[in-house]
Amino acid sequence: MGQEKKEIILEEIKYWKTSKLLPSEYCDFLIMLYTQGEGITEQKEHHRKQHGSIWFMLDLIFLLLLIPILFLGLFFYNPSVIVSLLIISGILLIIGGHYYYYKKLNTVYVHLPIILFFLIFLISSIHLLQLITGQDTLIKAIIFLHCFLWLLIGYWKQLYYLVASGIVGVVILVIYYFVI
């Protein structure tokens, strides 16, 4: 029997075992039969899943480190407008790629790139306005527009954390305007 056919049959037996279509003893017997007594496929798969999860966690840590990288690149080095736009565009492209990848995997981690995108977009807008104009009223208006945008997109896509963030942001801005 060809190697491809054996792989297909083994994958089907593993599916039967996980979905309990056959008793696990029967599935183990069939796996041993098709691997000629080796039964190595499950150990390799477990090692591959473990190794893949390490890379996945490192990728999540990398995503979370994008905000400090942005702060270092924009606020401490104080680059020109063009360099700032390049840094911002690069980071937003990285986040967009991660969003597409996590959405394709259909994982809960798809929300992390969404949150990071909106935060980095807000920070970048504030930084670029400070570089270009330096006026506080425009910065407050941009923050209000971002919070309102979070409200709209959160309501439209039913992302309640965006709705809550938008409401909290608007409330804080209103308190800031009237109290301070």
Automatic annotation (TrEMBL):
It comes from the Bacteria. This is DUF2157 domain-containing protein. The keyword Transmembrane helix applies. Keywords: Membrane, Transmembrane, Transmembrane helix. The chain crosses the membrane at residues 54-76, 82-101, 108-132, 138-156, 161-179. It comes from Filobacillus milosensis.
